[in-house]
Amino acid sequence: MTGKPFALCVRLILFDNQGHILVLKRSSSSKTNLAKWELPGGKIDAGETFDEALKREILEETGFTVVVHSAAGTAMQETEDFRVVHLVMIGSILSGGLSISKEHTEYRWVGLPELASLDKADWFSDYFSMYMGGGAKPSE
Q1: For residues 119 and 117, what is the distance between their CA atoms, to the nearest angstrom?
Q2: What is the pTM of this model?
Q3: Cα–Cα distances in angstroms (integers) from residue 7 to residues 10, 45, 135, 137, in the given order
Q4: Residue 54 confidence (pLDDT)
Q5: What was the pLDDT predicted at 32?
Q6: Whose CA is closest to 132, among 13, 9, 8?
Q7: What are phi and psi of 115, to 5 degrees?
Q8: Which pLDDT score is estimated for 140?
Q9: Could you tell me the mean pLDDT of each successive run of 10 residues in the chain, 140 residues long?
Q10: pLDDT at 34 (0 to 100)
Q11: What per-residue confidence (pLDDT) applies to 33?
């Protein structure tokens, strides 16, 4: 059992009109999960509620103003310094245009089959297996 402190990250599942999910590819200079795909979101700053942090992170990372609807699950990640809990929520876009931050190098709107094949961040891979059916296979 590790004695590392816990940290909380908040993430958001955003759908487009075709039911595709927005994913972002981390920069190759990231501290963890270099060049891996993840849901938008991030850490909570001191004094923020998790929904305030989530809205701020989504605006910073995507350019979207969002509304948060419901919880969609959790995942864990072990880093050098922390045991990180990722709280995943579902939300929708209120306004804005997609413009990714320097933390990420690419974005995609993906369905489950494509999401299953992406090289996902460790926590997102676990989340995907637990909550998204482990990956739907494309029909032959």
Answers
A1: 7
A2: 0.90
A3: 10, 11, 28, 34
A4: 96
A5: 85
A6: 13
A7: -60, -40
A8: 34
A9: 86 95 93 92 92 96 96 95 95 95 96 95 94 58
A10: 86
A11: 85
Residue 123 CB contacts under 8 Å (≥ 6 apart), including other chains: 33, 38, 75, 76, 77, 84, 86
Q: Distances from the Cα of 89 to the Cαs of 13, 55, 66, 139, 140, in angstroms?
A: 6, 11, 11, 29, 32
- pLDDT score, position 13: 98
SS3 sequence of the chain: CCCCCEEEEEEEEEECCCCCEEEEEECCCCCCCCCCEECCEEECCCCCCHHHHHHHHHHHHHCEEEEEEEEEEEEEEECCCCEEEEEEEEEEEEEECCCCCCCEEEEEEECHHHHHHCCECHHHHHHHHHHCCCCCCCCC
35: left (phi over 0), alpha (psi -120 to 50) or beta: left
- Domains recognised in the chain with CATH numbers: 6-130 (3.90.79.10)
